[in-house]
Design brief:
Largest sheet: 5 strands, mixed
CATH superfamily: TolB, C-terminal domain
CATH architecture: 6 Propeller
Strand order of the largest sheet: 6-7-8-9-13
Number of domains: 1
Shape: globular
Distance between the termini: 53 Å
CATH topology: Neuraminidase
Number of helices: 1
Number of strands: 25
Order of helices and strands: HEEEEEEEEEEEEEEEEEEEEEEEEE
CATH class: Mainly Beta
Length: 366
């Protein structure tokens, strides 16, 4: 298995982040009134990526941060908010565990999953992209189709391609800049019998975009990602508390231009995001323990929910990492991992925020 110095850099980053978290200050503000949509089993205490399926089910990735014996699992929340299991994923042969984060359905109807081995401290460039083959609504197989990520994170499918954020490109930079990026793969080249092995040191041809993060405490780069109906790509830069907009060429193979849509404005970070059917962006703010609604026309930020660090009782936010819209309700995955002065504790929940109509931010656009 290919090894990379990038993994040591990622682990050092996480250690520095934990030690320096106090510099950011606590969240002492409460906004909104999220409720519990779903209580998760104790073994699935680390929910993260979500995607709304064409059948109306909200699909969800879960793993157990503290227990390596629990396999990563894809679950789904049906229209009645009942939780079901779709499939247990295949463990990595080196670590004997799976750590699913971002998920999305490709144009082929199959589900693609980022297996972020780095989040639990695995050494080496061994994070993966998995393919769950779906037939008649059921999972029939799980395969590794791309190997060699340092920290695969978000997955977003657009056209006949799968895009994956690489939270660390594994490049050592003495200037304090953290490098991350986005990889793109054609569906036709994703073959479980011949997995793609990424080249080290950001030299792989599948890398189509690079991001830089200048945060001495949270040197964490590309995270959440999604596309708008016009094919523009939006990428969260976690440590910059920003979302970058990439105007793509018609084929979706490379950016033609880029701009920072929003940065800061009350957000402490930008984790998982959803460019939703209502034309708004929803983003989870892990450090701020908050969920924000962002107008893609103006960059205006409307905080939907925010509360001090909690155990999640009653639906309060508990280190949210993903926010997804279904109908008029925003579902929030509370990943609840032990960073930024947080501890893993019950209950393990998916919160839900009911929208109360347009916030008016987009009306301010020119």
């Amino acid at each position: 298995m290919k090894q990379s110095n990038g993994r040591s850099y990622v682990l050092l980053t996480l250690m520095v982040a934990v030690l320096g978290a106090a510099m950011l200050g606590g969240c002492d503000v409460t906004i909104g009134d999220p409720k519990i949509a779903v209580n998760l089993p104790a073994k699935n205490n680390s929910p993260d990526g979500m995607v709304l399926g064409k059948n109306g089910n909200m699909y969800l990735s879960t793993f157990n941060f503290a227990d390596k014996t629990v396999p990563g699992t894809i679950m789904y929340i049906d229209k009645n908010d009942k939780l079901n299991t779709l499939v247990e994923l295949i463990d990595h042969p080196d670590t004997e565990r799976t750590c699913p984060l971002g998920i999305d359905f490709g144009a082929d109807g199959n589900l693609y999953v980022a297996d972020a081995q780095a989040i639990v401290g695995a050494e080496g460039a061994i994070s993966r992209l998995l393919k769950v083959t779906i037939k008649d609504g059921k999972a029939v197989s799980v395969e590794t189709v791309v190997d060699g990520f340092n920290f695969s994170n978000a997955v977003a499918c657009n056209g006949n391609a799968v895009y994956v954020t690489e939270t660390s490109l594994g490049i050592k930079d003495d200037t304090g800049v953290h490098h991350s990026g986005v990889y793109r793969f054609e569906l036709s080249e994703l073959d479980g019998d011949k997995p793609i092995m990424l080249k080290a040191d950001a030299k792989d041809s599948h890398l189509i975009a690079r991001l830089e993060t200048r945060n001495p405490v949270w040197a964490v780069g590309a995270n959440g990602m999604d596309f708008d109906p016009a094919g523009n790509m939006y990428v969260c830069n976690f440590g910059e508390a920003s979302i970058e907009k990439f105007k793509m060429n018609k084929a979706g193979t490379k950016p033609l231009s880029r701009e920072v849509l929003v940065k800061g404005k009350g957000m402490l970070c930008t984790d998982g995001m959803d460019y939703a059917a209502d034309g708004m962006i929803y983003v989870a703010d892990f450090l701020g323990n908050a969920v924000h609604q962002i107008c893609p026309k103006t960059g205006a930020v409307n905080t939907l929910a925010k509360n001090p660090v909690s155990d999640g009782t009653g639906g309060r936010l508990d280190k949210p990492s993903e926010a997804r819209l279904r109908g008029k309700r925003v579902y929030v995955a509370n990943i609840d991992i032990p960073y930024d002065n947080n501890v893993i504790d019950a209950p393990h929940t998916i919160s839900v925020i009911k929208l109360k109509g347009c916030c008016g931010n987009c009306k301010k656009s020119k």
